[in-house]
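Hey everyone, long-time lurker, first post.

I ran two proteins through the pipeline my lab uses and got sequence/structure pairs for each. Pasting them in order. The first:
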Amino acid sequence: MTLCIKGGFFIPQLYGNIHGLKANQLKRLEHIYRRRIPHNLLITPELGRYLTELSQEIGRQIGIIVNRKGSIIAAIVGDEKEIVIPVLADYPLGRKRLRGLRCIHTHLKNEPLSQDDLTDLALLRLDMMAAIGSILEDGLPANIFISHLLPLNPEGKTFEIHPPVQFHRMDLKSDEFILALEEEMGRAVVRDIKDKRERAILISASRSRGDKDEQLESIEELKELSRSANVAVLDTIIQRPKELNPKYLMGSGKLKELIIKALQKEATLLIFDQELTPTQIREIGEITELKVIDRTQLILDIFASRAHSRDGKVQVELAQLKYRFSRLTGKGTALSRLAGGIGGRGPGETKLEVDRRRVQDKISHLEKQLKSLSRGRLERRRRRGASGVPIISIVGYTNVGKTTLLNTLTKSETRAEDLLFATLDTASRRLRFPRERDTVITDTVGFIRHLPKDLLKAFKATLEEMQDADLLIHLADISSPNFEKQIEVVENILKEIGLDSIERVLVFNKTDKTSPEITKNLCRRYNAIAISAIHPATLGSLLKILEERLWPEDMDEAVTSLFKVRH
């Protein structure tokens, strides 16, 4: 970072505002790199005096970045008010609590650390930030001002500012101090070191005139999606700016708060509730040095981990490629970072170097596969149609109990979990009614608000099976405070995929979690049937309605017979 090669010689690299400096001044600045600081000292008295005298001479602040071995890795020239720290690409933060670098710079007056100094300390996760004030008359060091970060604490303090001391009386053992600070930081973060899950902070940034309640509901749903993806949620940040930042989505102040919080809590992942552009993902990732994904990518990742059938795997891979295709930039290396973990599962868990043409070829190939699989499904549907067996499909929001209802009705053992998108692959079972009548009942993938368009398109082939359904059971979780909006989401998706013309029965599930009075009133208002899928005794009314809807002629016969008997 600090040296560049020219003509076979190593030349020290100076950063910042060097325009207008004399040749001898530049040479003296370059000589800074020859200095070495003992590992137990913050800075030597000789180097401190060298910096302040030169700083007064050129009328600009001078800064150095020092590693823990005492090597100076960057010499920086600023203006009279500040320095600008260069990109520290050779010293990534990773999962470290501190970067292993300290910044020491001059102030032309004997003033304390500025707010910009403290912000750089926090955002860059430096070991220390120090400023050496100088005496105007002769440029000698005056006071030294030191600050360092703090472990996570109840007061929410980010850093500690030490009282100023005279430079030549400073006796800080920097190596011992930093090691003790890191140990304290480790103790302050209470977590199981054996827990290898991603540690995420969830973010929602939506314009202030939007629906606040909907924003809160959506972030709660994002929590559940994260839980389904086996992600540990550390915290949530909600912002409602008047205008969204085109570069970072959220405001710069909130972004700084996010970075500090993420570092304090040792987060490894940022998940945004809003869909991010490729530029936003890149910019946020660079400034935070964390993995950044959005709601769409999280859902795609869940689908990638849960799909088991050939159909499901092809559909998910197709959706992922279409999503990432639009995010290929430059020479098409955007997919080269695909690896395991949240936001990284996908088509081929090895690193890929693909360009747009190759991705498009892969998409075309997968689409052909889907067509072939669709023909197989069509043939199976024809055979079922020829048998005259009615078809019932269970639809609904994710995690409302569709699989549990299928299992209870058919006495089957399809895997059911209390997770969003626990079921991705369609499952069909036989349901027997009295009088030796059979139906085929099918469990389908759950719907969700803001379902990725590419994913919906990919699953449309599977959902085509619902077109042959004679009846849809629209299952809703009556215990959810958002059940009305969930019903609306499902109805809108059914309309979008052209299934809104099929007869539907609205069924309220999980009535065991609500009072009988509330259940009765809601059923009357929505003309719905109340059940608890885990209690077979509650399903009698549902079975009766299904039988009436599927075989209405029997009801007509029954009414006719009753009329004849009475007369």
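...and the second, right after it:
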Amino acid sequence: MPYKSEAQRKYFNANRDKLEAEGVDVDEWNEESKGKAMPEKQANYSVVQNMAWISAQQEKSAESIKDKLQSFVSQGISSAKKAIPAVKHHLPKIRLPDTVAGATLGGLGGLGYAGLRDFMSDNEEEDNARYKTYGALGALGGAGVANVVGDRTRRYIANNTPAFSYGRNRTGPEAEALKKKLGVTSFAPAGFLKPRSFKHVYDTAIRDKPDAAVWEFLNTASDEGGVGLAPGIVAGRHELLRRHMGLPVDPKQEIFHSTGRRWFQPENLYDSDGKPTGIHSGGIAGVREHLEFNKDFYKQMQQKAKNTPTKPNFAYDEKLKQGYTPEQIKEKFMLEPAKLTYSEFNRGPGFARAVADGMPIRDAILAYSGDNKYGVSGLTTPNRRLKERMIMSPRVQDESGSMVPSPRLKEKKYDKPFNQLFANHGVQIDRDKGKARVYDHWDFGLKPAERELLKDYIKPSTELDSVIPDQVIKDWDKSSVVDSFGTTGSDSRTKRDHRNALLKRLFLNNILGAGGPVVDMTYRIPEGPYSSENVRNIEPIFFDRKQLDPGKRYIQDQLSSP
């Protein structure tokens, strides 16, 4: 374009239909050539050359259409690849309790309908066949509906439950002010589970988004009415609760990574004097899903720890290095950057708002972890505790006068790495092999003593309104035979209250949940006493399936071990 000669113009217009069918836009050629002087025939330009040129243009047009088609198909495949994980994420998981309950109710409903038709009909043969048909269809439909409802119920509970203690509530003027701000009636699970609006139910049950109110409550400092857990701890507990309920976790956002199902054995070991050895874990024996830190995320944590200042620096510009620009903060969180305080950046308001706004959880953890030499607040800190307090334990003199590692680790809260993330987790140190193992069964199951108490509580003869003495509760806590009491107020100490708390845990663990996963991390430890150099050399040993047989042989070995 434009035409090279009048002859070419005449040829195009005389053969318009043929050329346009082959993809040539004759009108466009005419428009481009309008008003331009052209020779009658182009010098030395034969008919053969003209036709060859037209053929080349047609091929180009065909290639353009082909490219557009390929681009369309490629975009379609890309969209499908993005959509498939999202669809898979929201598909309900078939669960035995839901299936049995739904099939039973649906089958009874189908039989009831068949019975009604039977009552209104005189054809016995058809009536008998109808019972089988409607009963089967009712059971099938009921099972399907129950699994969908059960799945969405679990998502709603997981997104609205503070994964902290057993039903602990907060009181006082600061707590009341925070309740009013968050729009909840109580900091017990029931207060967050109560629907606050249609949007609240839709976001947490259907869209499967965590409730910002829960996260802000857990992040907000204790002197402001909250719990004061770091962002990493809150996100870690949220993921563990989802895994406990069998809910999906985005592989690109997972903090923990599954290493398969194998045997777990809780341990409570004591020395000859009856003192704990440090190998002390809660949980229930059985085949459990095992988890460890996601390798990529662990590297991100370590890298941030290396990149952060060796001394705390709360300057605004320093905080923004790991987060957003002032313009982005203003746009996303509606905060004036000049008024943004350290607590708002590091704790609940900013972190919870970012997650609720759609920011990926792992990105939010890294962005809101604070500026200190330990990197990611809440997750690298336990690693530091592990290194500084547990693995490089104090030395004592043996019979020969040599300084050797203390044979007994102190049973104090701060001696337990991950004490905010897990409860009674075991710590095994094998200095001969240069390894340390930290593990915990993350569950809500009842201990043997609690199961016996529950059996007693459900007896008709039990006086449920009688108050459990404070000394008994203190003895429970001291001996760890019964977990935290689990009521919402300090005055609720009756047997009825304890029964209800145990029933809730039983329902959460065995009906809504699948028994809970086990977090199991192994670390390589160097020889020698505590030193900064030795601490730096401590690194995790990520699980390799070749190391263990996750099948029956391994389970049998565990069962036969002392």
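Reply from user beta_strand_b:
Welcome! Quick read of the second one: Residues 117 and 198 are 39 Å apart (CA to CA). The longest helix spans residues 47-90.
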